[in-house]
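Re: weekly structure request thread

Next one in the queue (73 aa):
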Amino acid sequence: MKSFFEGIEDLFVNVLFAPLDFFRFADSWAFSNIINWLFMLIGSVAFVYWMLQLKKFNDNGEEDKSSTSHSFL
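Done, posted below.
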């Protein structure tokens, strides 16, 4: 069982995360964090898209704003 977990460790450390070592030893702070910047960009684009979709449905009047959805309200 120990060799199974060591195989998983070897896969992640030496194969899957090996390209990230290039970013780890970069001299520039911004270049080292390029993956974080990409995640922030993707999150921002998703947030803007979601807000535009909410506005579209709100402007069309398709949003159910009744307070009868739960009996305790």
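The helical segments are 2-16, 20-24, 29-32, 34-60. The chain has a mean pLDDT of 87.
Next request, please.
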